[in-house]
Amino acid sequence: MTATEPWLRALADLLDRSHQLPPDDLPVAVDAVLEPLRVTATIYLVDAEQCDLRPLPTRGRPTPDPRPIDASLAGRAFTQVELHAGQGPPPRLWVPVIDGTDRLGLLEIVPPPGADLGDAALRDGCRLIAGLIGHLVTSKSSYGDGLQRARRSQPMGVSAELLWQLLPPLTFAAPDATISAVLEPSYEVGGDAFDYALNGNTVTLAILDGVGHGLSAVLTTSVALAAMRAARRAGNDLAGLARAVDAAILGQWRDARFVTAVLAEFDTGTGLLRYLNAGHPPPLLLRHGRTVQELTEGRRLPLGLPNDRIEVARTRLEPDDRLLLYTDGVTEARDVAGELFGLGRLADLAERHISSGLRTPETLRRLSHAVIEHQDGPLRDDTTLLLVEWSPQAAAKVQP
Q1: Band (349; pLDDT cuts 50, 70, 90)
Q2: Distance separating alpha carbons of residues 77 and 120, to the nearest angstrom
Q3: What pLDDT does 10 receive?
Q4: Rounded CA gap, 17 and 30, in Å?
Q5: b/e for 272-291, b at 16 or more Cβ within 10 A?
Q6: Among 327, 318, 225, 316, which residue's Cα sits nearest to residue 275?
Q7: What secondary structure, in 3-state letters, does 262-293 show?
Q8: Is the Cβ–Cβ distance between 187 and 161 less than 8 Å?
Q9: Rounded to whole angstroms, what are the CA distances from 127 to 97, 134, 261, 346, 393?
Q10: H helices then E strands: how many in the chain?
């Protein structure tokens, strides 16, 4: 028997159990399949605001405290998407839990006494189990409330509950491109949203900001998202997506509500970027880690307002370029003295995080938290960021 065979049996056992596994019983199932290996495991999931790693309760064991992302070894494993060993007591391994490349949390593994934390079979086995857990957390979350509840530090408002069900995962990576997004405040969102889709070599991107706040704004944005996706899946181009959103909003409301947005299509084979800007802050183009251009063309009225003029702008990206989209809640956040966070501060922080080698989702997490720290009190507006990196190296960095 090879050293990895017991882990492969545990993996197969967990997969067999998963077909009829209630969401709340995931920790119990993991304990059961790892018991023959004399291994104890605890699953931690990242909270909605990406500040803490929160443990899933396991029957028969006390539930540990949450682990802060910015001040713990567990947090370092999460932000770096790398396995880390802690010498204890007791000695343990912190293993990233991801679904695809979307960071979900960590698996804490306490091996048998005397085990070598550097043993390759142990580490590979932990990665296998953590990988399946990532897929199970995502697939099982819609069947119950326990996994969602575990990721929340406070109750979620109606508008946020609705919007989060519509958004794609925060991070996605293809072999040559990485897309990551973040939205705050997590529990009481307004009208911000983001979207992306990969079809062949074409990445379609969108960042939206519905007029107003709360549920009314989220309803407008939700209709815009649905209309845009329906048009995209019917084979429409960017101009067709914009017209579809116009028609959906105008057909539903008569109170002059609208959505500002940037819609874009990026060809990962040629680097061609096509975009239109419907009354939204212009995206930033970063090259060699420096901001080189605001993309200010392709202007039209916000979506949902009568508009006959739709001009699609074009530019060409170079390998390793990054495209940063954001809503006005980022640059217009004010501190206690009334000073705006501002475009200059956003660009400077993005450049610094990129130059330090941070992964794309971690860059956005830190940018978002910088806006929150700058704001005097609770955010007065949503802050949404979407970062695209055209780089095989970036895609490789967001997985263990």
Answers
A1: very high
A2: 18
A3: 96
A4: 10
A5: ebbbbbbbbbbbbbbeeeeb
A6: 316
A7: EEEEEECCCCEEEEEEECCCCCEEEECCEEEE
A8: no
A9: 8, 10, 39, 35, 21
A10: 12, 18
- φ, ψ at 305 (rounded to 5°): -105, 140
Domain boundary among 126, 150, 174: 150
C-alpha 196, offset from chain centre: 11
Q: What is the pLDDT of residues 58-90, one digit of tens each?
A: 888 899 999 999 999 999 999 999 999 998 789
| Contact indicator for 264, 242 with CB cutoff of 8 Å | no
pLDDT at 1: 61
Euclidean distance between CA atoms 129 and 83, whole angstroms: 13
Q: Which domain holds residue 189?
A: 158-397
Tell me the C-alpha distance between 5 and 263, whole Å: 49
pTM summary value: 0.92
Q: Give the span between the Cα atoms of 282 and 261, in whole angstroms.
A: 10
- Specify whether the CB–CB gap between 264 and 275 falls below 8 A: yes
Query: Is 251:257 a contact under the CB 8 Å cutoff?
Result: no
- Among 124, 150, 176, the domain-final residue is 150
CB-based contact 271:281 (threshold 8 Å): no
Distance, CA of 261 to CA of 326 (rounded, Å): 10
pLDDT at 391: 84
For the chain, how many structural domains are there in total? Answer: 2
Contact present, 207 and 326 (Cβ < 8 Å): yes
First to last CA, the chain: 27
Residue with tokens 């993991």: 30
Here the CATH number for the domain that contains residue 87 is 3.30.450.40
Identify which of 334, 333, 394, 331 has the alpha carbon closest to the alpha carbon of residue 362.
Answer: 394
Of the candidates 123, 57, 68, which has an alpha carbon nearest to the alpha carbon of residue 96? 123
pLDDT band at 304 (very low <50, low <70, confident <90, very high): very high
Do residues 330 and 376 both lie within one domain?
Answer: yes
CA nearest 385: which of 362, 367, 372, 398? Answer: 367
**Residues in the chain, overall count:** 400
